[in-house]
Design brief:
CATH architecture of one domain: 3-Layer(aba) Sandwich
Structural class: alpha/beta
Helix content: 40-55%
Radius of gyration: 21 Å
CATH topology of one domain: Rossmann fold
Strand content: 15-25%
Number of helices: 14
CATH class of one domain: Alpha Beta
Order of helices and strands: HHHEEEHEHEHHEHEEHEEEHEHHHH
Amino acid sequence: MLDKKEPSKKQKRKRGRLGKHFTDKVSAFDNAMTQFDRAANILKLTKSQVAVIKEPRRVTEVKLPVRMDDGSIEVFTGLRVQHNIARGPAKGGVRFHPDVSVDEVKALAFWMTYKCAVVGIPMGGGKGGVVVDTRKLSLGELERVARRYFAEMIDLFGPDSDIPAPDVNTNPQIMAWFMDTYSMHERRHVPAVVTGKPLEIGGSAGRVSATAQGMVYCVRKAFEHLSISLAGATVAVQGFGNVGSYAAKLLRQSGCIIKAISDIDGAFVSDNWIDVDLATKHVETHGTLKGFDETAGVEKLDDPMKLLELPVDLLIPAALENQITGENAHNVKAPVIAECANGPLTPEADEICEKKRVFIIPDILCNAGGVTVSYLEWVQNRMGYYWTEERILDDLKRMMEDSFAKVLQTALAYEVPMRTAAFIVSIERVTEAAELRGLYA
């Protein structure tokens, strides 16, 4: 039986500000394995099938000596995990964050494998990271960290082997440095080695907002399935970075009312609605939402985690992993959760929300818009021919809606939650690819 006691002071301190991990004593990777096992058991996979597709195929850790502006040398830790490449080259972002760990990157690479598979992209799962607080770096130091990371991992990366992309605290400029570093080593122009680049050097139209846009396509279909009107629906968004801010903007354009937003400096709520454009300008000016409660009609919550418990129609976790747990899932009031973050719910939270009949659009489907357009960018780079944003969005809409329909159909057929259904669809595809390829003896 789940313990419903109030969390201790120590637990509350551990929960901390938004952006800190708060797990139910379950690591992100253990969370991922639980999700896999549930679907694999339904599919009755053999031990041999599980052995080939469950664990990561390669985990690489390197030390990155970087000369700082004051002349000193600081050594950072860099990670790259390739989970499974049966369906194609590894694909996945690189995050720069002080909390990056092997466990986290393994989980993220795992989710990327099945994220690519659930939307039908011919790629496998990869993920990387550097343990660093980017707020403490100058622009020059940031560039040297980025280039050193890519140079140290250069034997892994390549257009046909492993293609990184932006993630937490990385952006198109860092992807440009990655691409340039690889191209300098190769002595040729290789734009397809990374995605999420600036348009001027081979990036794709529509990539910046792709993750949020893919989520909106899924949300529309979910509300249609549930016979709920999207126009006038209230929304709370946890995390106001690239994905969260675009999610709020695009949902507002669809007629939703944004009631609350948050970032590392707090959660902000309005009795009426949050002016998304004003919030975006505030972040552009100040770096975070700190001080946004000085805006008329906006209040700051004493505990930013309370945003997850607001009485809204749609909750969007767009921050880090393990935010909704066995401690707070009972208090979640939103009937629909769209997971823009990777792994925002722990297994305990999943069980609680399932019993409450919360409709969850799982991360490996909901936030797959980013990797979908990254794939389209990679295709354009290989052809040397670039499409209009209208063409990109048409393809994204078709791929996301088709994938949502397939997962929903599977959920209804197996009488399982959407998360399990998404894994059933993707595991079947990865398993089939692995078996067709066989083993190189």
